Task: inverse folding
């Protein structure tokens, strides 16, 4: 096996190297290939290669790599660019390759495969590559913008919480317990008043033999449901998007439900309703929540 040496001074840590595949139309094609100085790049073809490879620069070492490939390596610190004319023995694939030496921090290729293709397929591949190159910086900018938006949303949310905590932060001790016929038990022991809103904290203790799927949480003042969003701290997930969370058999999970404008119902008797998707395992806690 032919091996090209890679001697010289130590290079800075290079960017990730990659592979590429180029489709060559019947009339041949021209391709740009980025390489690193001192690094070997293999040009692979599906057919036996012609014995001659024409290069425009002495700064590149070019040798056969088996019958169907060429190994190239930029030598010397002054190597910049060279063009290389290659063809298979049948003439089915003819390419003009421009080897560009790029900095170590820039991604380069170490393996390039050339494949014969129809003119349409080769053109479509070139269009797709050009579009990808055009979109890459836009996608990077979009990703950065999303990160900035996420940070702004988080800052805004944290600021609102801080403002509400300054306005009011109280803990109300509650005592309410109830179970359904399947031995799923709910406990409500406290509520939080933060700013204008309230948060009813509850626990669901599943003593049944099957998982309990929480799909609905209501806080009822008389006949009016005053509940806002509800959350359940559970590691189990459900495919049904309407399910808030799942409590495995034998497990206990904590949850909370928002009561907006809590002063309107403060001091009134409230009922907390926890239900599964079909409502057959509903739990109603109508005592001890005020």
Result:
């Amino acid at each position: 096996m032919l091996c090209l040496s890679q001697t010289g001074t130590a290079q800075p840590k290079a960017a990730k190297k990659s592979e590429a595949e180029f489709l060559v139309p019947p009339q041949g094609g021209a391709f740009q290939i980025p390489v690193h100085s001192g690094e070997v790049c293999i040009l692979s073809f599906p057919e036996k290669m012609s014995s001659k490879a024409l290069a425009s620069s002495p700064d590149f070492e070019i040798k056969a790599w088996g019958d169907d490939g060429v190994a190239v390596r930029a030598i010397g610190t002054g190597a910049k660019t060279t063009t290389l004319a290659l063809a298979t023995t049948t003439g089915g694939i003819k390419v003009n390759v421009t080897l560009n030496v790029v900095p170590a921090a820039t991604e380069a290729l170490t393996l390039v495969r050339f494949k014969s293709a129809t003119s349409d397929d080769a053109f479509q591949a070139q269009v797709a590559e050009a579009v990808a190159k055009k979109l890459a910086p836009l996608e990077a900018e979009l990703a950065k913008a999303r990160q900035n938006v996420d940070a702004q949303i988080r800052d805004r949310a944290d600021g609102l919480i801080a403002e509400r905590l300054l306005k009011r932060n109280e803990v109300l001790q509650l005592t309410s317990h109830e179970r359904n016929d399947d031995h799923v038990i709910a406990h409500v022991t406290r509520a939080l008043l933060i700013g204008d809103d309230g948060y009813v904290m509850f626990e669901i203790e599943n003593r049944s033999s099957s998982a309990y799927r929480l799909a609905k949480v209501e806080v009822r003042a008389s006949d009016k449901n005053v509940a806002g969003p509800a959350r359940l701290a559970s590691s189990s997930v459900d495919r049904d998007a309407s399910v808030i969370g799942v409590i495995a058999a034998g497990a206990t999970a904590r949850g909370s439900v928002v009561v907006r404008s809590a002063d309107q119902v403060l001091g009134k008797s409230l009922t907390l309703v926890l239900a599964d998707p079909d409502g057959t395992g509903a739990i109603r806690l109508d005592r001890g929540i005020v």
